Amino acid sequence: MQPIQELFGGFVTIFTPELLMWCLIGVLLGTIAGALPVVQLRQWRFYYQHLVWIPLSALLFLMGIYQGAMYGGRISSILLNVPGDAPAVVTTFDGYPMTQQGRAGYALTLSAFASFVGGTIGFIGLVFLTAPIAGLALVFGSPEYFALMVFALIATSGLVGNRPLKPLIAMLIGVIIAVVGADPVMGTERFMFGFFNFGMVLISSLLELLAYQKYLSDLRRNVLTTKTVMLHCEILFPKFSEIMKDFWTITRSSLIGFLFGALPGAGATITTFIVYDIEKKLSKKPEEFGKGATKGLSGPEAASNATVGGALIPLFSLGIPGSGTTAILLGALMMLGLQPGPRMFQESGEIIWATIAGLFLANILLLIVNTAFVPLLATMIRKINTYLNPIIAVLCIIGIYMLNNSLLDVGLMIFFGLLGYILRKYNFPLAPLVLAVILAPMLEENFTQSLLMSSEGLNIFVTRPISLIFLLMSATILLIPLIKVLMKRKKIRGLDM
Length: 497
Prior knowledge:
497 residues, mainly alpha
């Protein structure tokens, strides 16, 4: 009963005009910043470095930005096929095909509803499961994280059909790109050619790869980037019964997203890829995924927003940021005089419970605001589709230039755009490449740390139960297609006899 009482007190605290206003402003700014590739990272840094209000106003503002940015990245993914951040890459798989089919409003509404349900489940988990989930996060060491990263990389091979050669080649290219820069453990420079932060620029350029290669492809075809279609009211706002067809997908994905979000280092990117793969395998019509399947959109959206509540558990209870975004939140908390850790709820309980209440408030505001803007966004994409290519090109250049104010970054973006265009032309999937670039540094770091902490060498990965489970799951994913082929051949031989 104590969490409920504390939460009720938090809601009473935040229901003032001033605090509601700051939360709403945060939601709006976060949504706008999240929709712009790369730019939102700068926005976050600017926001928390210039906070001059009382702590509660600042924290509600940040909760609004956090929730808004998570959804904002999906808007450009659905409407333009340009992911606003790394987790939004999966949204492009089915969100953009729905836009091409004239269902942009449907996709935006479904995304908003799934995000709301995911955020709500993450909020409930944050309120009632902080203590046990925080304990689970402490159980994960370097061997467990290494096995988790291996599982995530191998699981993505199920995203692109039964021919794994091209996905594996794309993944290998991503790993090669990821090794550029400083060694994550030793700090030695690799392939940097004297350029400071060269590796960071390469990784940041990958989101632009997805956007700029689309611009080049559309420029070559000289066609509109979206279909000029009439978006009827039924498409803009689908019936509630239609959305409820994805109820179990949204619920299941939200629970997975919450658990993965609570693991420091796992993050929304890994979660969305894994959830997409799970939903595709569970679907009765897996062939529809990648062609506008609603479950391919609602599942990752719910999981992504559920990670918000999960990621705040290790941050509040242990002082451990679970992602780059929560690391920024950690800096903001410390600037405001709060010390995340085991005693945070005792020493600053009133502010923290009000912040948690603000997280749910931001979730509600996000649903209302983005649902209200669905007609505007869906109509806008129909009105300005002729000008989308130059808009995408300008956003790419501005976004990447803002990282370091360097023309070198723009040149790298153009190079990656050409690389993405060539890979897409020859039917190489880009999703495994992007995920490999994101996960490879964490994979290398945890592998090295595991060997340094063990005197048994590679045995450490099979003597620890959790890491062994993930490795066995990875082996199963690799073996199942081979077993199916052998059984098919055996069946054919039996028929011949």
